[in-house]
Amino acid sequence: MTRTGSSPGVLSIKPFRRLWIALSLSSFGDWLSILALTALAGSLTKGSAENYAIGGVLVVKLLPALVFGPLAGAVADRFDRRTTMVIADILRFSLFLSIPIVGRLDWLYIATFLVEVVTLFWIPAKEATVPNLVPKDQLEKANQISLISTYGSAPVAAGTFSVLALISGVLFETQRQQANLALYINAVTFLVSAATIFSLREIPKQGGKVSVPSILKQIFAGWRFVGSTPLVRGLTVGIVGAFAAGGAVIGIAKVYVKALGGGDAAYGVVFGMVFVGMAIGMFLAPRILKEFSRRRLFGLAIIGAGIALALIAIIQNLVIVALLTALLGTGAGIAWVIGYTLIGLEVEDSLRGRTWAFLQSLVRVALLLTVAAVPFIAGAVGEHRIKLNKNSVYHFDGPNAVLLLGALVAVIVGLLAYRQMDDRRGVPLLRDLMAALRGEEYAPEEPGGSRERGVFLAFEGGEGAGKTTQARLLAIWLRDQGFDVVTTREPGSTKMGMRLRAILLDKETTGLSARAETLLYAADRAQHVAEVIRPALQRGAIVVTDRYVDSSLAYQGAGRELKGKEIAEVNRWATGGLTPDLTIILDVPSDVGLGRFASPADRIESEPREFHERVRRGFRALAEAEPHRYLVIDGTQPQADITRQIHDRVRSILPDPVPATAEAVTSTMPVISD
Ligand code: TYD
Q1: Which single residue of 257, 279, 365, 666 has CA 20 to 30 Å from 644?
Q2: In 107-257, at which residue ranges do the beta strands (DSSP E only) sit?
Q3: What pTM does this model have?
Q4: Residue minimizing CA distance to atom 25 of ligand 1
């Protein structure tokens, strides 16, 4: 049996597939147990003690890894792997089974603790087994698939928990019995896992030693090199802070959902929403925001998650909270994939393993500390009732405070990460983001410099529209007023451009592909900007050009039917993002324009009528999309009328022709007295 995939799927390896099924089942059981245990602990206590009871469950779950992790790893190495795993699963089955049977809070803690200790033996045994079942070149795939099932089983477990809560809500009366049902099912998953692994004869007795270094040691060793680069520093702050905020949510979720009037089913739904959101974030966001800086997005995603969390704390409506939770998860998911990819891409091979180990250890400690702190914070805040009006009272209790605090941490940490990691300093965030949403990369006006002081005007239009005449008249008018004016045109305003113009417009040029044509115009333009336009603008001149980027968008885009977006991108790169302050389009029906010539003069003019009609529509569409940057004039009007309309509009954007310091003479400025 084979699986489809880029390589022959690792899941087609039968022993690995079995192990993977066992692993998925255990993960599923694990997630289910978190929900069931917190629900049960909550139902075994009353009032504010509930906070502590739930926090206690999580602390007990996290603590063993910190304390016994390395020890268990070393011990596990000495035993037969298959036996270790089977015994561990049977023990976990029995322990989970005992929790509802005993039905006491103290035993719940002890059993949970023991389950985690047993798990510490199970994991290294599994880790050491995988390389024996899978060929080396597929190991990474195998690890990926394991990771997917570890986290992918969470929403499934959350959904199952909700459904179970609903079913048992019909069958049983107390909340305790409902949680018990989930625990029984959870116990069974470990029994099935034990049976599956038992049947795996392929697991070698020993070999493939894995060493599990101490968590604290990893943190201290990691600290030294993490501090050295801003990227890893930013990632660390972001990831650890996000998990700390996450700890606050996990720790308080059950109590909060209850305060909002939800039961276990609602708790399961809210829990699952986090993972649904994470999945959305992981898969969608990098695709939608393809052009956006990953490093910026990382911090923003955490800030976004923080804002969602703040809203969750304030808006006390279960449905809205569930939706916001998905949003929170989306932010977390985005941050997670970015963190994961950035470390993969930018941390040296030799340091990557250590970086991960460091981060994972730190994350566990952060989770543990926050989860442990949550009940105390909630308890310290207590309950507050704010009377809004006669019939409504706003509740602000411990859980609200905890969530708000978590939100604050996330926002601060997001900001810090953003500042540390920003790779586009000086590029305004909003414009950068808007451009990315349109699928473009925002190019700063001028690479590495400030905006020019001059004014940049462009004339555009089809053949025979009269641009050349109007451009000349405008230049004369401006010079009359004392402005330094540069008139220029495309293609062919530089030495190199002349040669390109010859190729582009010569009727002898045949078979030039549309893309090559686009690039040649862009090449001419790049030279034009670098040699003529930018220097003129920098010294403060007014530049009037006959044709610019929009000609390419209209002729090569609309005319040759190439993708406008791609042409825009090429040209943005060619010009360094330089756009005219105002573009004047002289609009004439193509018959009229072409009729102004005796016979087609060049290669482009010789294109059929439909081509020129498309070009005309192309220009109009550009102006419609950004009306503030354009002046569209009916080119069939008398010349003097056209000129006047141009003057009226250009006057409004002209700078002071005399130095701004010479205030006294401003009133005599011709532009104003005209
Ligand atoms: P030109 O003789 O300068 O034309 P006009 O007087 O019409 O402005 O020739 C430029 C020709 O090149 C014109 O037919 C339009 C075409 N063109 C493009 O197709 N793409 C471009 O980017 C530019 C600048 C011009």
Answers
A1: 666
A2: none
A3: 0.56
A4: 551
